[in-house]
Amino acid sequence: MDAAALWQRYQDWLYHHEGLGLFLDISRVRFDDAFVQTIQPKFEKAFQDIAVLESGAIVNPDEDRMVGHYWLRDPDLAPTPELKQEIVETLKRIHAFADNVHAGKIHPPDAPKFTDILSIGIGGSALGPQFVAEALGALDAPMSIHFIDNTDPAGIDRVLAKLGDRLATTLVIVTTKSGGTPETRNGMVEVKQAYEQKGLNFAQHAVAVTGIGSKFDKLAQAEGWIDIFPMPDWVGGRTSEMSAVGLLPAALQGIDIDEMLAGAKEMDAVTRQPTLKGNPAAMLALCWYYVGNGKGEKDMVVLPYKDSLLLFSRYLQQLVMESLGKEKDLDGNTVYQGIAVYGNKGSTDQHAYVQQLREGVPNFFVTFIEVLEDRNGTSIDVEPGATSGDFLSGFLQGTRQALYENQRDSITVTVPTVTPRTVGALIALYERAVGIYASLVNINAYHQPGVEAGKKAAATILDLQQQVVKALQEAGNPLSLSDLAAKINAPDKIESIYIILRHLAANQRSVAITGDLGQPASLTIAPR
Questions:
Q1: Which residue among 455, 470, 487, 493 is the active-site one?
Q2: Which of 18, 82, 351, 456 is catalytic?
Q3: Residue 92 catalytic?
Q4: Is 45 a catalytic residue?
Q5: β strands within 278-389, DSSP E
Q6: Which residues pair with 526 in a beta bridge?
Q7: Is residue 351 annotated as part of the catalytic site, yes or no?
Q8: What are 357-376's pLDDT values in tens digits?
Q9: Model pLDDT, residue 353
Q10: In terms of Cα–Cα distance, which of 464, 369, 373, 478 is closest to 426?
């Protein structure tokens, strides 16, 4: 395509939202008019599906749940007055709680104010708050935030060591819908122990975000935690940033959560438009479908050209991959859908994997995230007539051009600056693009059977570990690996037993192993 035709294509497909200052450029994706015409019926159905979803229908039949994260930023759309009241009241409570913490009206027992936040959660309960904290957290924020988002003991120790004596002035937010998520429960137990070791009352530092009436809700009430905020069952973890899950830690950091909600609401409104052009979420879904042949055949590489958006690709990994990575479609057919997401930031990756993007395996498409404002204030010239920001913009444009010249597709999303409003809009844009694309490929974007399968498998391993330790204690003499497996009637699980024993021995727990660990058949195992 010559320069004039490409410029015309750019103008034809450029989307601009004046109120948000957001641009979407899909001109460097090589679909043609015939493809758009062919896929139009799928989009008409997708727009109908989204309307049904937002009306309050049960669209997640696996869990018998509505899907209503859109209502969080526009409570007037909630299907019942009770739900609207719940949303409005929760937002008021979040504002009041943050104000009272900042004013010292809610404070730790032996200090005038809380200084830090420790957020314990995993998946959507961590990735959204982490992304927002990195994007919008100020150097002079009223509270610093820290995260425990895994069940890694060394990682937990590092966070607690960083807090040090400030643990006494740290407000802990534990986020779990039911309380049954092992990683979050483990983090809470470890942190509770850390408080007890310092002679501190954990409950006087703790806030829960959970399902009302859940086991975790009852635990927090029984122990007298500071407060409890609701996590509605109609909000999934990966779409929970605009609920108490994300808004509470953001408000405590001094981030303007009303502006986040306003940006998301404004994006929701335009992406309800039942047309392809003029609906940026539909335009994204069109590109995803085209480049991956409707089967996720190409990966999504996300390159934000702004340091504060570093974690956007990690946030999108869960949103996109957990939503779209499905074995079965809505009709029960095996389809193996999904779009793999990875990325870091530009221009750092000019010096990392852009070489492969330009010349290697063409199994991807790129999404550039451009921020027009370089910094808050003026910039010096690092070369005559050029600032550091000019170089950043030049690197983005140069990479985009180099990829296109070598038949690699790209999308560019442009925002004026990184603010609560634009961050809210970006979150909503991708949430809605995921919903539309899921309809195009006929899958349920709002369940996660693979995650649940992994949890069940992990529980089976932990049960096997209990059997192994008990059998060793009862044996009274050392056993070979095969004898131990036979003793618990699990010869088919001998590999798992070996891995369990190796882990226990490395941590000097329960078992003593003699022999060559590289030769499992040579091992002798005894209780420690």
A1: 455
A2: 351
A3: no
A4: no
A5: 299-304, 341-343, 364-371
A6: 512
A7: yes
A8: 999 999 999 999 999 999 99
A9: 80
A10: 369
| Residue among 341, 358, 444 at smallest CA distance from 401 | 358
Quote helix, strand, coil % in the chain, to nearest 5.
55, 15, 35
Are 111 and 231 in contact, with CB atoms under 8 Å apart? no
Query: Beta strand pairing status for 15-17 and 22-25?
Result: antiparallel
Residue in 434, 440, 428, 448 with CA at minimum distance from that of residue 70: 428
Tally Cβ neighbours within 10 Å of residue 411: 23
Are 480 and 524 in contact by the 8 Å Cβ rule? The answer is yes
Q: Kind of pairing, strands 227-230 and 364-371? A: unpaired
- Local structure of residue 225 (DSSP, 8 states): -
Do 433 and 323 form a contact (C-beta atoms < 8 A)?
A: no
* Residues written for the chain: 528
Between β-strands 227-230 and 341-343, what pairing exists: parallel, antiparallel or unpaired? unpaired
The phi and psi torsions of 341 (rounded to 5 degrees) equal -125, 130
The pTM of the whole model exceeds 0.85: yes
Catalytic option among 322, 326, 370, 431: 322
| Percentage of residues in the chain having pLDDT higher than 90 | 90
Helices (H), 325-409: 354-359, 388-405
Q: Residue 182 CA to chain centroid, in angstroms?
A: 18
User: How is residue 171 annotated by DSSP?
Assistant: E
